[in-house]
Amino acid sequence: MEVALIATDLREDSRRYSEMTPRFATGNDSLLEGFAMFVAGPTGIANAAHVGGAIAGSIAGVILKPGKRTAEQGAPRRLDYDALLRLAPDEKSRGLVARVKENADHADVQRAWLDRLLVSLRCPQCGMGYGEVKPGTLECEHGHRETYLG
């Protein structure tokens, strides 16, 4: 029983635990749980479940780790605000262009405002709505294209 208490006390030492890297902390936790499981005997704690969870979490982390971004994916988009203003027919759309420009430092927020703007834009040649055929290129139902990336 004393061994389990010592292992628990070590695990709960927040100063030591917070200074560890996540990989080391996971390994340390697994070792302590395994030690308690085999040496201390039945303690009323599901040590095997903790060890199994740590192993499963480590494997899932490796499998689900996001891949590296390519240069194209990681490169910031340079929006041509003048092109967007030319396509904005009314004050509401021009206000949305201003919101897109204001949020240039926040890619997700900027994209949300850009999506809202693109839905409201109409082709100046035929008056139809646009669809984004590829990033930075809009096309209406009649095939008229506009770009908004610089």
Description of the structure:
This protein is mostly helical and 150 residues long. The protein is 59% helix and 8% strand. It has 2 domains: 2-64, no CATH class; 76-147, no CATH class. The protein has a 3-stranded antiparallel beta sheet, covered by helices on one side. The chain is rod-shaped. It starts with a helix and ends with a strand. Mean pLDDT is 76; it is low at 1-9 and 13-18.
Tell me the layout of helices and strands.
Blueprint: H1 2-11, H2 14-19, H3 22-39, H4 47-64, H5 71-74, H6 81-87, H7 91-102, H8 107-120, E1 130-134, E2 137-140, E3 145-147
Antiparallel strand pairs: 1-2, 2-3
Helix pairs in contact: 1-3, 3-4, 7-8
Number of distinct helices: 8
Instruction: Report the structural category.
Output: mainly alpha
What number is the mean pLDDT? 76
Helix and strand succession? HHHHHHHHEEE
Strand fraction equals: 5-15%
Trace the largest sheet across and list its strands: 1-2-3
Q: Count every beta strand, where a strand is a DSSP E run of 2 or more residues.
A: 3
Q: Major β-sheet, in short?
A: 3 strands, antiparallel
Determine Rg (CA atoms, Å): 28 Å
